[in-house]
Every structure is written in C-alpha cells, then in structure tokens.
Design goal:
With 423 residues, this protein is an alpha+beta fold. It folds into 2 domains: 97 residues, Alpha-Beta Plaits (2-Layer Sandwich), CATH 3.30.70.790; 298 residues, Rossmann fold (3-Layer(aba) Sandwich), CATH 3.40.50. Helices cover 29% and strands 16% of the residues. The protein contains 13 helices and 15 strands. The strands form 2 sheets. Strands 6, 7, 8, 9, 10, 11, 12, 13, 14 and 15 form a 10-stranded mixed beta sheet that branches. The protein has a 5-stranded antiparallel beta sheet with strand order 4-1-3-2-5. The relative contact order is 0.16. It comes from Spirosoma utsteinense. This is Fe-S cluster assembly iron-binding protein IscA.
C-alpha cells in the first residue's frame, strides 16, 4: 500500500488527545452494521456539538462509533431521525473507554468539542447553476441535517473565509475555462462570473478565479480546513501552478494560450499535485479534461468498474487519517466524475494517500501552514454509469453509503480537540 507520511503529518496526528468526557449515563451510537442510518448519525453528533456538549469518537470501534452524554433530548432526536443507539451505564461507558486505551488494541477515543462553522463554495449563491444541485456535499449535509452556509467568489475576494472553519469545493473550474466540458455552466452562470470579475477590477474571469484560488489556499494555510471533490481539487492546483501564465484558450477569453505555458508551471505553489501536463483545449462546450492529474483523462465522465480500498491506520499514532477513514466498509465502489481519480505519479510525496484503486489514488490528505486539506476524486459516491449527472441522488436510498461517510468524517474532523505537542 502506498503511504506518504511526512514528519509534519506525524506530529499533527499525535497532537490529538484521548477523550476525557465523564458521564452519568451514556448513549452509544454504533457505526457498524447495527446502525439503521449511518449518514444521519453524523447529524446527531453535530447536533450534540452544536448544543455545547462533547462527543467521543471511538476510533476503529464498531465502525467508528460515537458516545455522548445520555439525555432525554438526545434520545428523542435519535428516534426522530431513525438513528440506532444503545444506553450505557456510567460504569460500562468508563470501562469501554479504558478498553479502547489498551496499547495493544488499534482503537482509541478522540473528543470532539466544538461544532465547526461550515461553508460550501458554490455558484448557486448567485445563479441557477443546475449542475451544482447534484453536489454530493450539499446533498449529504442536507440529508444529515447539518447546517451550512453558501459562499462564492465575492465572499472569498472580500476576505470572509477566516470567519469559518470548514470549506468545501466541488466541481468548480478555477482555471477560468467554465468547466470545459458537458455544458457544465449555463450562459447565466458565465455572465455572473464575468460580472464579479468586472466588479473587482479583473480583466478576465481566469484572473479573478486565480485570486479566489489564492484566497482559498490562504484560508487553509491560516488554519482552515479544506475539502474538495472532483474537478475543484484538480483545477485549484492547476490555477495555483499557472499564476502569471495564460493557459486559457481564445474560445474562453478572446486571446491565445502562452506557447510556453507548460514549462512555466510552478509546482511549488500547489497543494497536492506536481509534474502534471495540461490537456489541449477542444473548444468551449467541447469534451476534454484539464490535465493528466485525472487518471481517467480523455474519457470525461467515465465510470470505473472496480473498487478502491481505505488504508488501515493506527488509531493511536496516525490519528488524523484514522479519523478520516472511519467506516463500516474498507472497500468502496469507485464512482465517476469530471476528475474521477488522481494519477499516482502526479500526487506529491508530501500528501498522504488514504484510499487507492488499482491504478489511481482516490482519497488524499495534506497540510499547508497551520491548516489541512482533503481531496476526494469523483462526483457522487452513489452515482451510476449512464445516469443523469443533473439528477440529485436520493440519499434515502443510500443511508449506509460508505463513500458518503468519508465526506462526513471530514465534516467532523475540525471539531477534534488538540493538545500541545510534546516535540
């Protein structure tokens, strides 16, 4: 298995502390096959945090279960939302935590203490943006009943991001080429972006999107948590690497591409990817990908036929990836997207691969400055081949989706309690 673990990652991982919640009586929310609704269980955990109470995340115990203080209100909320739970006495709860602390067991307890302020970067803030209605994160946050706010380019340009803890990007194009593919954006969507660029003094949408990409990177470096899926993960790094270089064809902005654009890319400015080659432009509304970061490049919305595997991390020493990979199933069905998965040789050695298929990396983590990011390939964890990508997935049909659970692991991650490093 491929693992890129830097010293910085290791130090950050061990900075998370074992939970210290004391209980009168406790509610155990199992996350194994005994759970009636895995996705809504995360919503219960978030609601407890929002109420000012702590949540113990039991890493590698019954699929990454949660334990909270027992109250009539929380019990009622579990019943209303269809979430399975078990009542534990104070003695049993304490014994369970002691059991998980055993150094011979690959299990541990992490205390979540504060509900993260969540935002989703999406053009639905300013335009119809029908494609964004199928954003997997918007879908699962709504289904799990986890509150969030919507932001777009203006909020980033105005410097609003530091007000929040957790930022999601889905299938955005930060290169200023309006998606390049499959009628991704309507003329209304394009006009809105042109208007924002003009309002803030940018001559091109690509210049405005670069400023947005840099603002997102600064948010992360300043201590924010970034979660990106599909083309957003790919185009964010392309835009950062191409700062000061024209990589946008005339069909998008009226002038040509710098003939030396490829050689001028600066991979030191990117978060996750390096040594990638830009794809040629087939013209607006054409069918092309952005670069060979995408392991299914040239095939657009391709549906892989296989599965990808989550790595088994140490709950006591590799705490961060252990949290982000909690699941009741370690093998997950691959799913398509404009950026389906990440070519292995394009992923920086500083990134940690947490899930991989036979030929690509699907789920990766890294750090920049005081912040962290996770990139997840693909469009919709329950998307099907030949399906209409504009039709939202009904998560009532997929309450146990292991692919969607990875998204929700990331939602809870910023709530983890930290302690001072010993090194």
């Amino acid at each position: 298995m491929k693992r890129h673990l830097t010293l910085l990652l290791l130090l950050s991982a061990i900075s998370l502390t074992i939970g210290t919640v004391s209980y009168a009586n406790a509610i155990l929310i199992p996350m194994d096959d005994q759970q009636a609704n895995h996705l809504k269980a995360y919503g219960i955990a978030y609601a407890v945090l929002k109420d000012g109470q702590d949540v113990d995340w039991l890493l590698n115990y019954r699929g990454g279960s949660f334990m909270i203080k027992q109250t009539p209100a929380f019990e009622r909320e579990c019943r209303v939302r269809g979430v399975s739970f078990e009542s534990l006495s104070e003695t049993k709860a304490a014994a369970l935590k002691q059991q998980l602390a055993d150094p011979n067991l690959n299990m541990d307890v992490v205390t979540l203490q504060k509900a993260a302020k969540i935002i989703v970067y999406s053009p639905i803030k300013v335009s119809p943006a029908e494609f964004e209605n199928t954003d997997a994160v918007l879908l699962v946050l709504t289904y799990a009943e986890i509150p969030y706010e919507i932001v777009y380019d203006e909020e980033v340009l105005k410097g609003d991001l530091p007000k929040y803890d957790w930022l999601h990007l889905h299938h955005e194009d930060f290169t200023g080429q309006y998606g390049r593919n499959l009628h991704r954006q309507t003329l209304t969507d394009i006009k809105v972006q042109e208007d924002i660029a003009r309002k803030y003094g940018y001559g091109k949408v690509s210049q405005m999107k670069l400023a947005v990409a840099k603002g997102i990177r600064e948010f992360c470096a300043g201590g924010g948590y970034l979660f990106a899926m599909c083309s957003a993960a790919e185009t964010l790094d392309i835009a950062l690497a191409a700062e000061g270089v024209d990589i946008v064809g005339s069909s998008y902005d009226g002038d040509g591409v710098d003939s030396d654009a490829q050689s001028k890319l600066d991979f030191t400015k990117t978060l996750a990817f390096e040594n990638f080659t830009l794809e040629g432009d087939n013209g607006y509304r054409g069918f092309s990908t952005f670069s060979d970061i995408n392991s299914s490049g040239g095939r657009g919305y391709d549906q892989p036929a296989g599965f990808f595997e989550l790595f088994n991390f140490s709950a006591k020493w590799d705490v961060i990836p252990a949290m982000l990979t909690q699941n009741h199933e370690p093998i997950i069905k691959e799913f398509f997207g404009q950026t389906t998965a990440f070519r292995k040789t394009a992923v920086k050695p500083s990134a940690l691969v947490m899930g991989e298929g036979k030929t690509s990396d699907r789920y990766i983590y890294g750090e920049v400055g005081r912040g962290q990011w996770t990139f997840y390939g693909g469009h919709d964890p329950e998307g099907t081949r030949g399906g209409n990508f504009r039709t939202p997935t009904d998560l009532n049909l997929h309450p146990h989706s292991p692919g969607y659970r990875l998204i929700l692991n990331n939602v809870l991650f910023p709530s983890a309690r930290k302690k001072k490093r010993k090194t």
